[in-house]
Amino acid sequence: MSIRLYVGNLPAELDRQALEKIFNESGDSVSLKVITDRKTGKCRGFGFVTVGSDEAADTVIEKFNGYDFNGAVLKLEKALPRTKGKAEDGSDLEGSADDSSESKSESSVASTVDAPIKAAAKRKKRNNNKKATGSTSTSSSSSEAHQPDPRWASELERLKQQLLEAQGAAK
Prior knowledge:
Strand content: 15-25%
Radius of gyration: 24 Å
Shape: elongated
């Protein structure tokens, strides 16, 4: 069974042959895949090494994690399997058979909507702190900083209405 290892912190100007030579010194048969930018062809800073066994993977990680390669300290760890359809919190968006799709879509919308609201609250708090200390700052006149993401604007508006209705019912 082959094990895939993540290799991080690779330099943009990478000598692939030199990197292959270093990993082949471990004595195990390894294959190397360096991830490159499609437009420039330069290394994107990471790649993958595939080794034959779990023991070989541990040996390679132990030997090369922290290795200085042309001034860049390599980071090696076992690669996580590729996943599709994951939410920000790591939960599966597609859900299992016992989960309702409605609750999953609501939670993904809520997490998407919460981020801009939390960011706005932080900005407001930061601005209030600056006013209290008497410092002045120049703010960007960009109107897009105050506009919600158009992909979620209708959902955000619906949530705002629900919030206002809930506040009105509480009074």
